[in-house]
Structures are given as C-alpha cells and as structure tokens.
Design goal:
The complex is a heterodimer. By secondary structure, chain A is α/β, with parallel strands linked by helices. Chain A has 10 helices and 14 strands. Chain B is built from 13 helices and 5 strands. Classes of the chains: A alpha/beta, B alpha/beta. The A-B interface holds A 14, 51-53, 70, 73-74, 76, 78, 80, 82-89, 93, 96-98, 100-103, 140 and B 2-3, 5-7, 9-10, 13-14, 17-18, 170, 173-175, 177-184, 336-337, 340.
C-alpha cells in the first residue's frame, strides 16, 4: 500500500540558509505522525511544503503515490502555528465563511460539538482566549472532513489543562481514522499522541520510527535509583552501578534481575525509583542539546 | 462562485462593523465640502470680464473696450465662450465673424447682475455695431467646480487605502495564508475585495453627491445615472490600482508609502483643486495618465456642462482600460504570503 504522504529528498533554501536538508519519509494512512525538533529545526518549513504553502527548492511530495493536484486542498485540513482571523467576524460567521470555500463540509453542529465551540459561537473571533482560538482553528482545519490533518505546534502557548483538552480532541480525530501530521517541541505530547516520529535538527532527520522503537534502539537501559548507606559500592551483574549523594544509580537492561540482586543484598527498597528514558533523554542523546533550548 | 460570494459577504460585514472606518468615509468628504463652501463663498472681485471671439484684432481696436477695468479674454471656440456667459464666468461675449453685419454679435446673461450692469455701461456703442443676443444660466461657483474633484478624490482615497491596507494587514497577520490553505483561487479573493469595495465606495460617493446637491444647491446639468456610471467606473479603476499596489507586500509602512506615492500626485495634478489649462503640455499629458483626471473631468463635464454619454465616453474608456490592466496584473502578481 502506498503511503498517504511520501516525501523524497526534500530541500528548502532561503538565501544562504538551508532550512530543510535532504529530508525523506513516508506517512501511513490513519497514523498520527509527529515531526519533532527544537525551534528552527525545519519542522514548520517541512510541513508547509507538504501542505503546498511553500514550494521546495528540490525534492518531491507524493499524495497517495501521485504528485498533489489542486484537489489536495479539498482533502487536507490545516492548522497553522499562528493565524489571525478576520476582524469583526464572529466565530459562527468565520465557520460559515470557511465552510463556503469547500465542496464537502461537516455539519456545523457536529463540528461545534466536537471542538466545544458552543459557549462562544457569537463572540468576535479576535476576542477568544488561547485555548478557544486553537479550538476554532482546529474546527476550521476539520471543516471539510479532511482525510489528512496538519497541525503545526497546536498546543504551543496553552496552559496545561487546555493542552490536555486538546489532546483529547486529537484522539477523537485519530479515532475517526484520519491521518494526523503534527509538529511539536513537547516531548510528552509526541509520546502520548504519535504513532510515528521523525526527529529533526538543523534541517536534517536525526532518526525516525515509533516512540517505543526509537527509545529501545537508542536508550535500551533503564535507570534504577535507591538510597544506599553502605560504605562500599556494591558490584551488580545486571548493570553498571555508581554512587551519588547517598543513592545508588544502576543502568540496567533488566529491572527484574537488578531488583533480585538488590533484595539479595537486603537493600531497603522503600526509596526505590525506576526511571524510564523519555524522548527528552533521547533527543539529548541524539543531538547533544535539549529540545526547548 | 460560492466562495466568491462568501468572501464578499464576510468583507461587507467587516466594513460595516468597523464603525470608525465607516464614519470616516462619510465624515471626511463632508468636512472637505463644508470647508470649501465657507472658504470660497465670497463674491468675485469687481472687474468686468469680456470674452472676445472671431476677429479679435479688430475688436481690440475699439476705443470703448480700452478701459483697464475691463478684463478681455480671447476665445477660439464660440461654444466654450457662450458657456462661460451662461455660467457667469464672463459678463459679456462679443464676436465678429466674417464681414457680414449679422456676423457681429454680442451675448449677455439677463440672470447676471454684472452682465446687466456692463450692458448699461457699453450699451450705446454695442447697440450701434452689434446684434444683441441673450444666454441664460445660473452661475457656476467655485464649489460647483470643485465638487466633482472632491468627490473623485474621496473615491480615490476610499478605494486605494480601503482595499490596500486590508489586504496588506491580512497578509501580515496570516489571514491570507489561512485562505491559501483552502481551495480559494487568488482571482476569487481579489474579485470579492473589488466588488465589496466597489459598492461601498460608489454608494458612499452617490450619497454624498446627493446630500451636497441639496445642501449646497449644487449645479448639476447632466444626468444622475451618468454620474453613477462615472462613480462606478472610477471606483473600479482606483480599487484595481489599490489591489495591484497591495498584491505582494506584507509591510504596512511600505504599502502606505506606495499608496501615498499614487495618491498625492493625483490629488494635485488631476484638476481636483485647480485647472491645468495654463500648465505646460507635458504636465497635462502626465495628468492624462492618472485615473483621477478622467473621473474629475468626466464628472465636471456632466455636472457643469451637462455633457452626455458620448462626450465622456473617452474618459470612461480610459478608466475601463486602467481597471482591466491593473486587475490582470494584480491577479498575476498576487501572493498569499511574502516569500521569505
């Protein structure tokens, strides 16, 4: 089966600056695909080339195995990173305007309920809170019942509760079988939402795969922490062990064997913590710097 | 078509909800007209003006035409000179054509007090040599003359700035980029902007025109329908020019500069405030390239000369060509967002 979207050897140059440097990947139909990277990594440029907003310097984008036609805009839903809306139009008027631009649209009531717009339908669109505006922009991205939805940093600037609400919305979009392409610099967001990830830095792909596969490949060891009052660092067969501020840190491939060894040493396990590596750790390892630097 | 109508409707709603812009588009021209009416309401200086036509050299030999309180103005065309008598712009017109005695005539205007006074003054020598004739007509005040210019100028500002700034602001804040992500075509978008502005500008101008007609007892000899046609043709040309100016830039400052560059020369050279009759020919030719010149000349001809469609068709044609050229260029050059 061909990919829903396929990107081959994409390059984009702005003057002397190479924003996207030979990027290739495929997006399966119905999956939630994440482009992960710090600010300036080339995520937005890449997603906007796929959307057809920007033209690449070289490389091709295929939609269902074919070059994109003008029909593509009927089948794609797009939420940009920051968009102002028309001055003086209410939320319902903005929805009606955008609805008129497409051949096929979702019934207004359905969309309003899905994106929770009921309480501010008659408010001017430029007087919404951050979370309300993002929900309206998401509604605009879904108004044509698209097969593929592009979300460029949809939760940037939202408070934690609004972000969680937004994740629930994205889950329901995924449940409807739509392909979701998402850029983010939030690790937790990528881990929770994405089935597939591409990690970008300086315009290049650092690695790609499912979050689990990426972590297993690059960070197979888990870290076990436990308080340690003994005079000497014990020698464990299950992993390297080091002492630090009154605790033991053990890098292990098997938490079970490490625990068995600690029990045999009669260590008090009440202070035990197991740290699973996160995408943040992965990113640090792959690029040498943190995501939100 | 559905997309076009939706965009048109949205733009109309925005305009009417933007109270400050709405108020300004009526208030500004009203203030200008009232200002003009006050500034130019004092009577003309007390010097008699006599138009001379035909064998002017022979006329100038007449002893009774020598006094320097008589300002003599030569005319090549009898019709133009007669119109001046009708509009009280000259007090008397004397003409010698050929050698036949019926070729020597003079015209006065019974509705002009100064024309009558001058007739009393020169009555005897005139009556012995010339056949008398009269021409009727009310005076053309400066406000009658300047009003078509003010209307044209108001249309120019409303059209150019109204459409230009909106598009540039929408490009700057990403509204255009959002529309680009929909199936809307550039031509659909700019056509909706054009039509929305067109009826607003033409409607505002017609309202002000009718208000002034009654408020200032404006001289309108031609037809109202023809005035509306001029407003529509003029607004189309100006809006198209505005769309062209706003076709690419995302900087309001730069767009403002371009819009000023387009409007200021027109304001001074398109005969809004003064006639270019005595200006160098090259300047007159340059003014002919400006759409406002044609709006003002056509409106003035209809209002104070009672011109018909055929008389102003040349001006309308120029406005139509300006519209087509600017719209085609704007649609071709249009960018949803600036290329970084």
């Amino acid at each position: 089966m061909p990919f829903h979207i396929e990107v081959n050897h994409l390059c984009k140059q702005f003057g002397d600056i190479v924003a996207v440097d030979d990027v290739s990947f495929g997006i399966r139909e119905g999956c939630c695909f994440g482009l992960l990277g710090p600010n300036g990594a080339g995520k937005t440029t890449t997603i906007e080339i796929i959307e057809g907003i920007k033209t690449p310097s070289s490389g091709v984008v295929l939609y269902r195995g074919q070059p994109r036609t003008p029909q593509f805009s009927q089948q794609a839903g797009i939420q940009f990173q920051s968009t102002a809306l028309m001055d003086f139009l209410s939320v319902s008027e903005v929805l009606r305007l955008f609805g008129s631009l497409y051949r096929h649209t979702v019934p207004a009531a359905e969309l309003t309920a899905l994106c929770q717009l009921e309480e501010f339908l008659e408010r001017p669109a430029n007087k919404l809170s951050g979370g309300q505006k993002q929900r309206l922009l998401l509604a605009l991205a879904l108004i044509n019942d698209p097969a593929i939805v592009f979300l460029d940093e949809p939760t940037t600037g939202l408070d934690p509760q609004a972000r969680r609400n937004f994740w629930t919305l994205i889950d329901s979009i995924k449940a409807a079988g739509k392909t979701v392409v998402l850029t983010t610099h939030y690790m937790d967001e990528a881990e929770i939402l994405c089935d597939e990830l591409v990690i970008m830095d300086h315009g290049r792909i650092v690695d790609q795969g499912s979050p689990r596969a990426l972590l297993d490949r690059h960070l197979p060891l888990k870290r076990v922490h436990v308080d340690w009052r003994g005079a000497q660092t014990p020698a464990l067969t299950s992993g390297a062990c080091e002492r630090h501020n009154g605790e033991l840190r053990i890098e292990t491939a098997s938490v079970e064997i490490t625990l068995q060894e600690l029990i045999a040493l009669q260590v008090d396990l009440s202070t035990l913590r197991v740290h699973n590596p996160t995408l943040e750790d992965l990113f640090l390892k792959l690029t040498g710097h943190r995501l939100r630097e | 078509m559905r997309a076009f109508l939706a965009l048109l409707r949205a733009r109309n709603i925005e305009f009417f909800r933007d109270r400050s812009a709405l108020a300004w588009s009526f208030l500004f021209p009203m203030l200008m007209i009232i200002g003009c009416a006050i500034a130019f309401s004092k009577p003309d200086p007390a010097v008699f003006r006599i138009g001379l036509h035909g064998d002017i050299a022979a006329l100038q030999k007449r002893e009774w035409l020598r006094p320097d309180y008589l300002e003599k103005i030569s005319f090549d065309h009898l019709e133009t000179a007669q119109q001046r008598v009708q509009h009280h712009q000259i007090d008397l017109l004397i003409s010698i054509e050929g050698t036949a005695s019926d070729g020597s005539r003079y015209w006065s205007n019974p509705e002009s007090k100064r024309s009558q006074a001058l007739l009393q003054l020169l009555g005897t020598p005139l009556a012995t040599e010339f056949h008398a004739a009269t021409l009727h007509g009310r005076p053309v005040r400066y406000v009658d003359w300047v009003m078509p210019g003010v209307l044209g100028m108001n249309m120019m500002f409303g059209a150019l700035f109204g459409v230009g700034y909106v598009i540039v602001r929408y490009r700057q804040n990403g509204v255009l980029k959002r529309l680009q992500a929909t199936p809307v075509k550039p031509l659909e978008f700019i056509a909706a902007q054009l039509v929305s502005r067109l009826w607003i500008v033409a409607g505002v101008n017609l309202t002000i025109f009718i208000a002034c007609k009654f408020l200032l007892n404006l001289l309108v000899l031609g037809s109202l329908a023809l005035m509306l046609l001029i407003f529509v043709a003029g607004a189309l040309a100006m809006i198209s020019l505005g769309l062209l100016i706003a076709s690419r830039t995302a900087s309001e400052e730069f767009a403002g500069g371009l819009l000023n560059l387009a409007t200021w020369p027109m304001m001074f050279l398109s005969e809004v405030w003064f006639s270019l009759d005595n200006a160098p020919v090259w300047l007159q030719r340059a003014a002919d390239l400006m759409p406002l010149t044609h709006v003002v000349k056509a409106a003035r001809a209809v209002m104070i000369e009672g011109a018909g469609f055929n008389d102003i068709s040349g001006h309308l044609l120029v406005l139509l060509i300006t519209t087509v050229v600017c719209m085609a260029a704007a649609a071709r050059l249009f960018r949803w967002h600036t290329v970084k």
